[in-house]
Amino acid sequence: MRRVLVRRLGQALIVLVGVVIVTFGVARLVPGDPAITYAGPRASQEELDRVRVELGLDRPWPEQLVDYAGGVATGDWGTSLHTRRPVLDDLSTAVPASLELVLVALVVAALVGVPLGILAARRRGRLVDGTIRLLSTLAVSMPVFWLGLILQNVFFARLGWLPVAGEYDPQLDYTSPLTVWTRMTVVDALIGGNWPVLSSALAHLALPAAAVAAYPTGAIAQMTRASLLETVGEDHVRMARALGFGERAIYGRLALRPALNPVIALVALVFAYSLANTFLVEAIFNWPGLGSYAAASITTLDTPAILGVTLFVAVAYVLANLLVDLVQAAIDPRVRRAL
Amino acid sequence: MIAIRDLEVRFGGRRVASVAELDVARGEIVGLVGESGSGKSMTALAILGLAQIAGARVTGSVQLEGMELVGLSERRLRAVRGRRIAMIMQSPRASLNPTLRLRTTFERTLRLHGVPKREIAERAAAALREVLLDPPLLNRYPHEVSGGQAQRFVIALVLALRADVVIADEPTSALDVTVQAEVVDLLRRLRDDHGAAQLFISHDLAVIGQLADRIVVMRGGEVVESGPAHAVLAAPSVPYTQELVAAVPRIGVPA
What we know:
heterodimer, A: 339 residues, mainly alpha, MetI-like fold, 18 helices, 0% strand, B: 255 residues, alpha/beta, Rossmann fold, 25% strand, globular
């Protein structure tokens, strides 16, 4: 197991080096001058020359690349041209917000999607199955910004049950200030025992999390259904029936466990994907996450920030895939042999 | 033990198996022969009430010691499956849950049928001894044992469940010849030492000839011949059985 882990981490490192080189190259190919972005459109030629030297743009690009890669390795991911703060600092506030949103959404998606998939598989061809398939297709194909607006319209504007945007009620900063530990509001409120902020944070999280959860819920339900139906046709399920096990035990446990592998892979993929791609939801709900940061850095041609986001997402993908392998191996011993 | 009368299995409008009369007595092995698609496996599934789950319509009568199984509720059928009538399948490793250790499969099945926890270990030890498997083998997963070991494990499970009737559906077909002989020997002992009634399904007359007391031949969903094993093998009465018997290779007899 340890050897597998070392080998996989080595592979991950190679992937990350590749990502650094490719993103750096692409960033240099994009038209636009980082110096102008940094100094502003009214800067004089002397100012621009000074900024070029300051940013190292006057040196040949291989040298810049080596410089950048060395910085990445030692914790200096460059300075954002837009916020003028170190990229790593920006990420350390944006990432936890996105992480919180995406994690909650995926937990909800798994808790809802897997049972729906089981139910649909058990009642295949019946009305329940048809309904679940229709709903999950809707959930998968609905544009997420549209869903976000609908949710705000219903639960904020019409019913007034939930807040419309933000992470928590800013007035609470005066009455019960939050101590920062992880920068994930819910977690920090839990650690600090800050109940007013906790309930406000959960209420603010509900709608954006629901919007983010829609796609994975539908996809997980469909994947669970398909994988279960395939597994249920296998010999060991016939044997389980012949031994007297009921359909509930078969769909809920005996066939479910070997059927979960593709579902786990799907969850990990959606997780890594969602981290930087929920910017539409983050924009609608004014959520200060990675998606918002990425969108802002792209529109302002903020090269160091774009590189930082890309690199972080690559790390997230690599780690998610590693985690998938470990979880699959824990659930299905056949995978252990293949590792 | 098992008495089948006018059993018919239909899928949609198509009749896939029809058995007018088939009895298996305690301590008897009945060989059910026929090519694939002849309806023998469907007959086995119908006895266990499993053909219905697959969407078939089953009519007629299957009695287990006087208890009618056709039309019995799913809940009561589940108490019969495994506990009274057990099944052994063709691909032993594929018929075991790939995510569970053999021990877990063993314990869950016995607990399902109400065997108290402390008794499970005793029964496991005794059953494994009988099929000549090392107890540590229980800690393995199905993909970590050989086909022969897996099939012996399944037989041990059947022994521990103390089933009265065993349906063996091609239990030796996926195994190589030496392992086949071991499994045949174990099935024979299941009859001789434990008095189990057995329905042995195979397309292989050579194996059936070693084991069966009586032989039933099926073709195209229907029984075409039945009788004592030696009589059917020595003097088959219908052309189809004659072909089957002629097709069995024998040492010293030129084809």
